Design the sequence.
């Protein structure tokens, strides 16, 4: 029987308060880590758990931490990536609004493991309630000795500063986030050097997603075997799935990694509205290629979705029913990427601008013969040639829509109208 | 605290003053409502950083406004999850009842209407942000009720009967 842990407090009245968190055993994992484990042992625990980053890329968290040089001669930093901006995704907001101490405890343990005394929590500026709750939680944790100097009587000192973003999807890309933190336009940096070696202020820096950090106290408290025993061996652990779109029960669900997508959509979220059928599902935020209905029997984990031609991404599951025009969906997705392109590289900046113009024309019934070939050529020009994953995400998403729903694109061009209007 | 004191307190969190530009712009925008040139220059002077650094941030990030916006900025999400739940119907309704187009501000300066990219609240789509607050599971009746509440808030704050200044057709 699966026991949710990440969402344990989210529906509890006053779940955001320290007293509630402590009553459920909160901050005991921090005490255990400081008393019973060296920093290297904490890294080993996380490595043994096979925790993979929940921000989208799925990189092994313990391995990322182990890349931080032991003797850098510079301060080390922990950055929490809370710039949740992937359309379809709202899991991190739930944690920050309703159980912020879970995140703060995870940050404190993670900072202890990598030897950081300062963390910046980069949160999207739109999240007003989450920001207020985090400010309150940090103050509570400081007053109780979970943050500050000589935490719980140890030699470990640690402070968390909140840094509000100001509306830019690219800040979810870790190096762009670092530039933004350093007071620049958010544009991705060339890697290497990787942030673990040369990140914030050219110092060793670890950047982890909110959900990733929230997993850490549970791994310390319950052990890596417990974590690894949930879901597939290569992608284990509890997972937050965001369900939205044309589904009866949208919401946030915590279930094992690897749960079948069909079960998630039809059983948990109640399936499509009455009288409608599922046409397609975007499984991991709009960067993830959509999956047509016939492909829904796939496990929701990094490797299974990659094998199926999509990706887990942020696990932002968007359900599309048979009343919806896929050309309109594809157009809106590419409009988003075009709007959010930081402008650093030509394939992304110019390619997406061009793709939006073609898509709008097709959707409006003014498409021309050759437009689909043009879109495919643009995808080819963007994918693999853009500076960061933003351009790639747009290209693979558009390619999937063209591949699976070519008939709808063709109908728009032939009939010179949208068949759904 | 004055704006300068707030900005200096924020800047103390960073080893480099340039990092404090975004927090400073947030403080300045709350103080002034938007960020005209003289305010940007004041921020640069307080932090002791190049003015162009402040300008480039103020124009890169969408939450910063270099032009005035209304007392209440209605930011309706029209990204995919909200679009699938008919946010476009709400946009048409808002344009009709406010008598403005997307991007416009009502003549009384009360409302600015915008569409925005994903607000990260897709479980309660369609959703709209007004100031720091989210309003979700919206339909036309709820939007109308929200507008009424905002007008009442404005009336309480100013003592003026702003309803009389509402645009025709409402």
Sequence:
């Amino acid at each position: 029987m699966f026991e949710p842990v990440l969402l344990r407090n989210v529906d509890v009245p006053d779940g955001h308060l320290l007293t509630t968190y402590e009553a459920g055993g909160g901050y005991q994992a921090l005490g255990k880590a400081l008393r019973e484990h060296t920093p290297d042992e904490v890294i080993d625990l996380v490595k043994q758990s096979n925790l993979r980053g929940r921000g989208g890329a799925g990189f092994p968290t313990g391995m990322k931490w182990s890349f931080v040089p032991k003797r850098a001669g510079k301060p080390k930093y922990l950055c929490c990536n809370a710039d949740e901006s992937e359309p379809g995704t709202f899991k991190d907001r739930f944690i920050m609004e309703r159980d912020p101490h879970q995140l703060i405890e995870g940050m404190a343990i993670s900072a202890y493991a990598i030897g950081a005394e300062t963390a910046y929590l980069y949160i999207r500026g739109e999240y007003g309630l989450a920001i207020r709750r985090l400010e309150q939680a940090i103050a509570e944790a400081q007053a109780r000795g979970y943050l500050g100097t000589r935490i719980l009587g140890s030699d470990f000192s640690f402070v968390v500063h909140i840094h509000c973003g100001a509306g830019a999807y690219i800040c979810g890309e870790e190096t762009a986030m670092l530039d933004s933190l350093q007071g620049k336009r958010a544009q991705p940096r060339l890697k290497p050097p990787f942030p673990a070696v040369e990140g914030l202020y050219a110092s060793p820096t670890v950047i982890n997603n909110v959900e990733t950090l929230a997993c850490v106290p549970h791994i310390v408290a319950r052990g890596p075997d417990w974590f690894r025993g949930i879901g597939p061996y290569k992608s284990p652990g509890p997972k937050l799935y965001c369900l939205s779109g044309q589904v009866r029960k949208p919401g946030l669900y915590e279930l094992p990694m690897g749960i079948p997508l069909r079960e998630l959509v039809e059983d948990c979220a109640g399936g499509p509205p009455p009288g409608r059928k599922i046409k397609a599902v975007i499984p991991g935020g709009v960067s993830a290629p959509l999956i047509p209905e016939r492909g829904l029997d796939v496990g929701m984990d990094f490797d299974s979705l990659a094998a199926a031609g999509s990706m887990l991404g942020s696990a932002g599951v968007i359900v599309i029913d048979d009343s919806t025009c896929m050309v309109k969906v594809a157009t809106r997705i590419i409009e988003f990427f075009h709007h959010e392109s930081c402008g650093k590289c030509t394939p992304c900046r110019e390619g997406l601008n061009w793709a939006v113009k073609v898509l709008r024309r097709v959707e409006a019934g003014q498409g021309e013969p050759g437009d689909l070939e043009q879109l495919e050529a643009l995808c080819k020009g963007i994918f693999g040639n853009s500076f960061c994953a933003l351009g790639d995400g747009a290209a693979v998403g558009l390619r999937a829509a063209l591949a699976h729903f070519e008939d709808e694109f063709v109908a728009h061009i032939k009939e010179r109208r949208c068949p759904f209007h | 605290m004055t704006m300068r004191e707030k900005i200096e307190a924020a800047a103390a969190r960073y080893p480099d003053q340039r990092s404090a530009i975004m927090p400073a712009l947030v403080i300045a925008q709350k103080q002034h409502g938007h960020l005209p040139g003289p305010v940007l220059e004041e921020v640069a002077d307080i932090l002791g950083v190049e003015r162009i650094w402040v300008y480039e941030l103020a124009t890169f990030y969408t939450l910063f406004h270099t032009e005035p916006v209304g007392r209440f900025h209605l930011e309706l999400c029209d990204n995919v999850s909200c679009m699938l739940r008919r946010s476009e119907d709400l946009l048409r309704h808002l344009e009709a009842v406010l008598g403005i187009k997307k991007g416009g501000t009502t003549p009384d300066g009360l409302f600015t209407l915008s569409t925005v990219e994903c607000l990260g609240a897709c479980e309660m789509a369609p959703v709209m942000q007004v100031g720091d607050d989210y309003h979700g599971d919206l339909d036309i009746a709820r939007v109308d009720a929200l507008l009424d509440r905002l007008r009442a808030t404005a009336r309480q704050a100013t003592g003026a009967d702003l309803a009389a200044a509402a645009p025709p057709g409402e």
Summary: The radius of gyration of chain B is 18 Å. The mean pLDDT of chain B is 93. Chain B touches chain A through 44 residues (CB under 8 Å).
